[in-house]
Write the C-alpha cells for this entry.
Amino acid sequence: MLTIQDSVAVITGGSGGIGKALAKYWLEQGGKVVIADIMADALETAESELKKISDDVISVTCNVTAEDDCAKLAKRAIDEFGQINLVAPFAGITGDGLFIKTDRETGKVSGKMSLEQFQKVIDINITGVFLTVRECAEQMINNDCRGLICLVSSTGSLGTAGQINYSSSKAAMSVMPKVMTAEFFRRGFADKIRCMAVAPGYVGTPMVKNMDEKIINNILQQVPISRLIEPEEVVSLVAELYRNEAMAGETVFIHGGLRLGSKG
Ligand SMILES: NC(=O)c1ccc[n+]([C@@H]2O[C@H](COP(=O)([O-])OP(=O)(O)OC[C@H]3O[C@@H](n4cnc5c(N)ncnc54)[C@H](O)[C@@H]3O)[C@@H](O)[C@H]2O)c1
C-alpha cells in the first residue's frame, strides 16, 4: 500500500471543483501538490487558500491543450519536489447540445452541432489529458517514481443525450488506463506506475451547479441516493486507488446508483 505523506500530486483543473478538493485532501494527508489551470486568477485564489493548510503547494498556469505548457508543468513538479506520484488530469469541460436538431412541426433538420462545439470538448478532454499524462509519465519514468495516473471518466461515458462530444471524450478516458497499463507491462514498469480512471455521476461542482435547476432536479429523481455526489467522495475514491496497488487498468464508477433502473 502506498502512503500519501510526502508524495507529490500533479492536478490539472486544480483551481476548482474536484481538482481543488483533491489538492486540499492531499495536503491534509501530508502530501505535496502542483495545481494547474487555465484560469490564472482562480488558480491564484486556490493557491492562497491551500497555503493555509500547507506550504507544499505551487500553482502553474497551464492550458492542457498546449504541448509546451504540459511539458513545463511536469518539469516544474520535478524541479520543485523531485518526484511525481499522482497524476490527476482533471481539467475538463462540457459543451452540450443535440448533434442534430429537427423542427418539431416540419420534422426537417433545423440545426447541427458545429465542428467547433464538438472539437473544443475533444481537444480539452482527450488531447489535454493525453498531453498531461504523456509529459508526467516521461518524468515519472526518468525519475524512477512510483504511483498512479488517475484519469476522470464519467457516467456520460455510457452515453448521454445532448453530450455527443462529452460522452465520447469520457468513453476515451475508460479505455486509456487499459492501454497504458498494457504498455507499461510490456516495458516492465506496470508494478511501479499504475493507471486507473474514476467515473463519477453528477458531482456538486460548478460544472453541474451552473446547470438549470429544473434539469438538476430531474436528474436527481434518477439517483437512488437522492443527491449529488460530493467532490470529497470522489477524492476519497482517488485516494484509495492511489494507496491500493492492486488497482490497475480499470474504471471505477461512483454515481450513487444512477441508471440502475426504475423505482420498481
Ligand atoms: N462535476 C461532475 O458532475 C463530473 C462528473 C463526472 C466527471 N467529471 C469530470 O471531472 C473533471 C473535473 O470536473 P469539475 O466538476 O471539477 O469541473 P470544474 O468546471 O469545476 O473544473 C474544471 C476545471 O478545468 C479547468 N480547465 C478548463 N479548460 C482547461 C484547459 N484548457 N487547461 C487547463 N484547465 C482547464 C477549468 O478552468 C476548471 O477549473 C472534469 O474532467 C469533468 O469532466 C465531473
